[in-house]
User: What shape does this take?
Amino acid sequence: MISPGSRQRARINSPGCVLGLACIALGLSGCASLIGNVTGGLVDDLSNAILESDDPATVRDGAPAYLLMLDALLRRDADSPALLRGAATLNGAYATAFVADDDRRRAFATKAFHFSLRAACLEVAWMCDVRTVDFDELDQRAASLQNADVPVAYALATAWAGWIQAHADDWNAIADLARVKPILARVVELNEAYDHGGPHLYMGVFETLIPPASGGRPEIGREHFERAIELTDGRHQMAKVLFAEHYARLVFDRELHDALLNGVLRADSVAPGLTLMNTIAKEQARVLLDTADDYF
Assistant: This one.
C-alpha cells in the first residue's frame, strides 16, 4: 500500500507516468485486434494509422470520433467482451493522455474501468468480485490465470491503474494498487512481451512509486524497466523515459537519468507500432531534462 504524501501524489500525477501514457499503446494497438472482426479492415487500418502517426495533436483531435464509434458498436452488442475491452482501453488512453480537466478525466477513466470490469466478468468468472475478494484469495485467483486470459487481465489492470491515477487524491483508490499488482504480475509470467513489454513498464512503476524506506523496491523496478527495453530491442523510447522518471529520479542517479533521456532524443521515433509513443516520449524527455537541475 502507498503511504500518503505530497511527493508520492506528484509522482502519480506526473505527465510521463505509465499509469496514463503507457495505456496508449494498448488502447490504440489493442483495438484493431479486439474489434476488427466487427468492422472489418477499417478498424485495423485506422489503428495502424494512429500508431504510426508522429503527430499527437492530430491523434488527440481525432480520437473522440473513434470513441463515439465504439459507443455505437456497444449499443448493438453491449455484452461483447472484445468491444468492452476495446472501449475500456481507448477511453482510458484518451483520458490520461489528452484530457486536462480533472472532472472529465475522472469521468473517462471511470467509464474505462467499468467497461473493463464488465469484460473481465464476462470472460473470467472470478473477476466479477475482484474489487471485494480478500487479498490472499485474490493472489490465488490471479495465479490461476492462463495465456488465453492475458488480454482481458491486462485490459483490466491498465484501466484500473488509469482509474487510480485519475483519483490520485483519494488514498482509498491508491490502496487498490495492491489489487492490480498480482494480476499484472501474473501477466508478466504468462506473456512478458505483451503490448511491447507493457506489463513490465507497469510493474516497474508500481515498484518505484515510493522510496525504499516506505516499502518501495526500486531495484526490482529497474529490472522491469530494463527488461521492457530489452524486449523491444531498445525501440520503445517511452520505456527509457519512464525508467529515468521513476527509477533514476527516485534514487537520485543524475548520470543515468540524463543518459537515458538524451538517448531518447537521439533515437529514431519511427518503429513498428511505437511511432506515436516514441514521439510522445521525446516530448516527455525534453520536459524531464529541462527540469532536472531543479530536481537533483
